[in-house]
Each structure stands twice: as structure tokens, then as C-alpha cells.
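Take a careful look at the protein record below. Let me know whether the C-alpha cells fit the sequence:
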Amino acid sequence: MVFQYTDAFVTIATINLEELVCFYTNFFKQEPVKIIPNIYAEFQLSGVRLSIFKPKKSNESEFINSLKSKMSLCLEVSNLEDAIAHLSALGYPPPGEITTASHGREISAYDPDGNRIILHQSKMDS
């Protein structure tokens, strides 16, 4: 039997649903395509869906400490400085400096829950 899937998306769990939905609405400059008040919101991005959900009370403890998360939301941008300025205008400036790697320039930032967002500009766009 061959494993098949029909779609893939990234989800972020949060007990601060409204704050995170507001942050990503302002960050992406778009409203969620799906929303269930106090439970779920979904953004359709180029090539990926980002879903944000509020865990059930019985499961909240697994999600409260996002510092244990090893996942990052990586966004390739056409102009890294513009993306940094946009995040800074929202009140979430990246805490570090731009680094250069073999694949291009990047910087890490964090959303209101501490989830890592990696902004990346490829060498071809530099």
C-alpha cells in the first residue's frame, strides 16, 4: 500500500487565539479565509495554508510553552529589509542581525506567542 496525501498545511496552537490571528492578519495584510470564533482561523498563503487553533482546555498544557517547539514558519521574501520594517512596524522587530548563508540572507523573528518566523531572501533576489 502506498501512502498518499491530498494536502499539507502548517498549524500553530495557541491559547491566545485572537491576538495571534490579529498579528497574522496584520502581518500578511489579509483576513483569514476560514474562521471559527474562539476556535480556529486559516490563512491561504502562496503554496501553503497556515492554520491557528485554540486547543481544548484538557490539552492546553502541552501547548503553553512554545519554547519547546522546534518548528519555524519560513517565509521567502523578495526584500528582506522591507519585511523587517513591516514586522517592526507591527511591534515585533527581529531581535538579531541578518545572517548570510549559502542559500541567501535571513533573520529570525517571533510572533506574539514566541513562534519562530524565519524571513529569507534568496541569493537570486539579493
